[in-house]
Amino acid sequence: MDFIPYGRQSIDDEDIRAVIEALRSDWLTQGPKVIEFERLLADYCGAKYAVAVSSGTAALHIACLAAGIKEGDEVITSPISFVATSNSVLYCGGKPVFADIDKDTFNIDVAEIKKKITRYVKAIIPVHFAGLPCEIEEINKIAEEHGLILIEDACHALGAKWMSQSGSWNKIGSSSHSDMTVMSFHPVKHITTGEGGAVLTNRWDLYNSLLKLRSHGITKRIESFRNKCAAFGYSSIKKKEMPNQWYYEMHELGFNYRLTDIQSALGISQLKKIDSFVYRRQEIAEQYNNEFSSIRYVKHPYKYNAKQSSYHLYPLLIDFKKLGFSRNEFIEELKKNKIGSQVHYIPIHLQPFYRDKFGYKEGDFKIAEAFYAQELSMPIYSGMSDADVERVVKAFKGIFNV
Ligand SMILES: *Cc1c(COP(=O)(O)O)cnc(C)c1O
């Protein structure tokens, strides 16, 4: 009996062939595969531009830099996320300001965002938790009203959709109601490149900024050169000015956050399967919902008519107090049945670093903390068979004696 983790990648022979082909090609990095992956990702999501980078965290970092976040700026985000979300604000010298979550969607609460607006707030970074789209159109209205940059952390939500107020289905990643959207291709996410991430945007200015930040702050684009004298020489053959071919300029302090061609080849191959990956996750969630809805002390994720979750996670709320089991014992019981589970997440404001630096404490975000006390994510990934799902359900019900 194999161990069923809470999440894992699905790699097939096609993926392996794609990587081998990249290894045999002329380009290991900064070649045609990166450009192709970016084009396919942007087209899939319905955004104009995609910038592929070395991780979701790197994507968040350069998105915050492109947004102009600096010392003294505040950025509103959710306490229920991976620490990378708010850390990206800290990298830029900004201050993450948390707004509590909604008790049903587990996404940032729009009314709570409004309460946190000050003259120091520069941006909002909502997270589409577990793959369920947040109230992006409402949040966009707040951002526009106050002149704030809006960055979606969609690391959970590739392949998710919401019904827009105009009545059409919009894909997460389209950035139709934000400035930028961030994705991750870590192995537990919907598609993987080993490590990897991307920023999607429809804004040409941000796109150019992101391209520079990804690669040392350097540009080789002729039209953006600032030192024209150094950039151009006189050609005695053509009798006119021509660009110096070796020339490049560094405009700001960037990083080496590039994705390789090897990784991009895997990304291209994975992206071909995204719809079936998401569909399988939705099927599993449906099965779980049916099975868990009748169990006392268990609350499964709601299904919304106007939102299609891509189910990066399947978060259950379990009333461990009433159940008479501690969560740790519960996890241990599942493990005995060779089933993994995980808690998503310890509220970020309760991390010692955040407590020490900003004075956050227990009780600051009550809904997030109540959520944390009950949350347990059950296994969900596209490679899970029906038999795997049944094994999880059986073990789970065994613990409840139902
Ligand atoms: C995975 C994840 C990240 C970070 O992505 P990496 O690719 O692991 O750096 C950021 N935010 C959220 C919500 C994530 O789930």
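^ pyridoxal-5'-phosphate complex. The mean pLDDT is 97. The chain has three domains: 13-217+253-271, 218-250, 274-400.
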